[in-house]
Each structure stands twice: as C-alpha cells, then as structure tokens.
Hints:
By secondary structure, the protein is mainly α. It has a single domain, classed as Orthogonal Bundle (Double Clp-N motif). About 55% of the residues lie in helices and about 0% in strands. It has a two-stranded parallel sheet with strand order 1-2. α7 (about 160-165) packs antiparallel against α9. About 40% of the residues are buried.
Amino acid sequence: MSTSPVPLTGSSGRAPAPRVASGRLPSAAERRAECADFEDRLTAELMTAVGGARRRALRDGDRQIDTAHLLHSLVEADPETAAVLDEGDRLARVLGYLVQRSIGYGLRWQRAAEETGSGLPVVRGGGNGAAGWSPAAGTALAGAFERAVRRGDRRVRGLDLLAALAADPGNRAAEVLRRAGVDALALTARIEEPSQQV
C-alpha cells in the first residue's frame, strides 16, 4: 500500500493525507480526497467517536489523540461497543476509569506521548491542542480498517476499533480495560460472535 490508511489530524482539525509513494507532498485535492475517503469509510457512530476523541484531547490539553480518548468516545457514541462491554458491571467500571482519567487519574499520562509496542515514532505536529494521533491510536485505527477489509466491508465499525484497541496490551485503552476487569481475549471472542456482526 502506498499511503497510510490512517491520516493524521492537522491543526485545522482535518485529517491530511500522508505523502504519496513518490515522496512528494500530496496536493490539496489529494488531501481533500483522502479526508473524504477516511470519513466515508467510518460508520456514523465511529465518525462521532473519532470527532469526540479529537475534542476530548483538545479540551484536556493533550498533545495527541490517544487510545483512551478513542475508547472513551467510542463507548459513549457507539451502542454496539457499549453492548459488548455491558456484561455485569464492566461498562460502568470502564466508564468510571475513563472519567477518573478525565479528572486526574490520567495526569501521569499528560505531557507524555503514548507509545505502542510496534516501535513507531511519536507523531509531532504544529498548532495548538492535539496535533495528531498517538502512535498507538494510529495503529489501532489502521487495525480497525484492516478488520473491516478482512470482513469484506468497506465501512469500519466501532467494534472493529474496540477489537484493535484491545489487541495492543501496551496502549492506554487496553490498560483501562484491564483495570476494569475486561479480558482482551474474551472481548475479542465476543466481538467475533455472529450476533455482533450486523
């Protein structure tokens, strides 16, 4: 693949396209097309979650949109995601940890870039607020796109992103899920159940 499936968020709040295969910067028309393609491939619920994660990062003064921002917004915006987590009191515990993070639990995460086990470099950008995705968030979004392709669907669902978030045990979302008592393997199996495939 010549371009990254997950564009970074620029200071304008839009997702610019990555460099094309030739190494040149894409034209404005190419960037608009990439943004439109990115947005067109997300379900309405997932698009709402991505926008919510962006706003949450800006509001919290974080440099990047991380996996905990994505998980928090995903749980709030996507009923399928909430339903998969709604076993016993797990959903309430996940939300409790995420709210604690918003009011101070995550202070140890502020000003520190979220890394991922993949060894990707930290994404840097200009402007105020969230300059882009953390490497782990970018990896999770790419994983969600890959899950949709394997499923034979052009549209990426919230459950695709949830499974990708849970797949990297080193990201912040996976840490929140673990602390809330959610087993990543059991969660992935539950997502794969035919009843979850809409």
